[in-house]
Amino acid sequence: MNSELLWVLTLLLIAIVLFTTNKVRMDVVALLVIIAFVLSGTLTLSEATVGFSDPNVLLIAALFVIGEGLVRTGVAYQMGDWLVRVAGNSETKMLAWLMLSVAGLGAFMSSTGVVAIFIPVVLSVAARMKTSPGRLMMPLGFAGLISGMMTLVATPPNMIVNSELVREGLRGFDFFSITPIGILVLLAGVVYMLIARRWLGGTAHQTVDKRYHRTFRDLIRDYKLSGRARRLAVRQGSPLMGHTLDELGLRAGYGANVIGIERWRKFRRVMMAATGDMELQERDVLLVDMSDSDIDLRQFCRDQQLEPMVLRGEYFSEQSREVGMAEVSVIPESDLLGQSLRGMKFRTRYGLNVVGIRRNGKALEGKLVDEPLLLGDTLLVIGDWKLIRALKTKTPDFIVLNLPLEVESAAPAASQAPHALFCLALMVAMMLTNEIPNFIAALVACLLMGKFRCIDMESAYRAIHWPSLILIVGMMPFALALQKTGGIDLIVRGLMDVAGNMGPRVMLVCLFVLCAVIGLFISNTATAVLMAPIAIAAANGMSVSPLPFAMIIGVAASAAFMTPVSSPVNTLVLGPGGYRFADFLKLGIPFTLIVMGISVAIIPLLFPF
């Protein structure tokens, strides 16, 4: 082993450790890798940055935009509504149709995005069926991962493997080359989950509302808000008048969190969501959350010249046109994890107020503003519906888990849904011809979605998950560096020593296991970048076709079922499903073995050695 190879392997080990500990953002690690390769002289600048011009990176970016267009036009949510109608009150039907729907939709858009869309659907269905969300969340996550095996563009690993084949001068895969494998795995997954669901879920979900969506009343009960809110009118001469909420610092000084302000407008009171720059006026009525306060309310009212007013049980529902309420969760990759609401300046940044936090299924009590956010926490936010929707569609740090019954159901571009479906169908048709490059087909669909007003430019740019793209770009130099320094030859020789004399099917098993093990520590995208050239080199060493070896890497990279950190999809369902780490091991390991068995049996039939 030469010194250059030792340096590359050391750098790879450092990157894996950083990915595993999550102390440094994955995209930052990827950029540091590029810098290290160039400064050390291992790669030239053009070699280290080749990923920025890779067509597959651009294709992935375009597919993020296509997925956002399907969300904004309501196509994805309509599929969720259809699912509820078809399944009715049958948990068996719901599980089967849920997995089929998620896998079908995920074949054309980000699996993480699809799962994020269906989480509130599953929560609502579980509430209506009076069952635990845990019995459906794991099937949802598994279906999201299986969707990566449905089409060539369903997940980045497929496109990375195909790109490596093309780079080696081979023809590569067609749009539906992987689909037969994905269909078999999906059917096996449905049967497996129908059997394994008995080990999922604990106590039934608390919500017993018979309607499809939960209501404000349900959220108030679940987050134990009853008795915490107060209505306080600003009287003449109050020292609060003429000052903004940020200037007054009521939450920091008194533990009084103003979450709404009633103000006279045209002979009637109008509820306004409270923001830090709002200036208080005489006759304003403040809706205040006093859960963080340990002061005497009557003394506080005397000091600030406030008058307590009646707060009836239906108050929030009556104000639902102006002020909204929703449950949200921090995404796994966000750097907001570990920060407190005060530290991240939540209200100033997002214009919304957090009035409740649930952790491990229980509502937290005490001073929430200084509570560090942990993975799996759900937050109850109150504020303007537009800002809640912005948090849902434009903010990369949060997903909205549940929108209550009071929310308007229309999507921002719902009238353009037929156009969005047309753009999607056109893109698939162009890709199937094999005459038009996949990126050009996706770019045409993106531009048409803009033309038909399915999506605007701001939403399009926000839809692109830049950390994922930077991760791919930063990991690509590893494959080239390993090739230049002899690392790939060393790994292939090791594989040949172990399985070279046992036939290509045994080599497929070895590649699958190696890919699955590496995927426990780094993302499936990074795993595919590293393993694709190794698989092709192993095929060349055995003098067989590289196609089945490349395909096994694509399938294995998507088979990240074993831990909640193997994929963002798993992490998303961890909190809402109420799962533990052991739940993923218990269900994920057997199903990964099933997927391996299907792959090793079917792939050589589709792509002969």
UniProtKB/TrEMBL annotation:
Name recorded for this polypeptide: Putative divalent ion symporter
Location of the RCK C-terminal domain: 217-306, 313-397
GO cellular component: plasma membrane
Keyword Methyltransferase recorded: no
Ranges that cross the membrane: 29-45, 57-77, 97-124, 136-155, 175-195, 436-454, 466-486, 506-535, 547-567, 587-607
SUPFAM superfamilies: TrkA C-terminal domain-like
Bilayer topology: Multi-pass membrane protein
UniProt GO BP: potassium ion transport
Species the sequence originates in: Xenorhabdus beddingii
Location(s), subcellular: Membrane
A Gene Ontology molecular function term of the record: monoatomic cation transmembrane transporter activity
Superkingdom as given in the UniProt entry: Bacteria
Keywords: Membrane, Repeat, Transmembrane, Transmembrane helix, Transport
